[in-house]
Amino acid sequence: MNALFLDRDGTLNERLPGAYVRTWEEFRFLPGVLEALRILSGRFERLFIVTNQQGIGKGVMTVEELEAVHARMLREIEHAGGRIDGVYFCPDLATVAGNCRKPGPAMALRAKADFPEIDFSQSVMVGDSAEDIAFGHRLGMHTVLIEGKEEDAPRLERMQEQINARFPSLSAWAESLTQ
To answer: Domain containing 163: what range?
Structure first.
């Protein structure tokens, strides 16, 4: 089964420089994302969000606050005609040994446990960071880089062979699939 794995911050919604999206009022979909998700919902059998959320591990926000943001996000996506089959997040700090953060495979493996029919070799990972690309590549997925995260540019330059496609936005990639 083909599945689409999507990063959240910087791919679906605006990043907050130096901060974490803790409330719905701070969450802003990037332009064209809701329409893109409607298109992608018709192209992929399953859609998942995989997101590192170490703000929880830092004590900046709670799991309940994150889940409230995700619940509202999912309602907005569904209202626009899209769907998300699962949201997987990792609250761990990057410094914690054995953490579940991308680029490690833990969130994808949780999705596969919930949806055993997932075939990573037939799936796509879309994200804006080196961690997103490494996550997809390690699992044998096709990878799509959403360009714009300047702080990752040097690392991404060294990862060219792991990037299958580059687009300026999720909406540009979704539109390319309709042509």
So the answer is: 3-177
Question: H-helix or E-strand containing 124?
Answer: strand 124-127
CA nearest neighbour of 128 among 152, 142, 145, 143: 145
Q: Give yes or no: 7 in active site.
A: yes
Name the catalytic one among 9, 92, 132, 152.
Answer: 9
What is the residue-averaged pLDDT of the chain? 96
Q: Quick check: is 114 catalytic?
A: no
Is-contact 3 118, C-beta < 8 A? Answer: yes
pLDDT in tens, 6-51: 999 999 999 998 899 999 999 999 999 999 999 999 999 999 999 9
Global confidence as pTM:
0.96
- What is the tally of structural domains in the chain? 1
Instruction: Spot the catalytic one: 7, 92, 128, 132.
Output: 7
CATH number, domain of 145, equals 3.40.50.1000
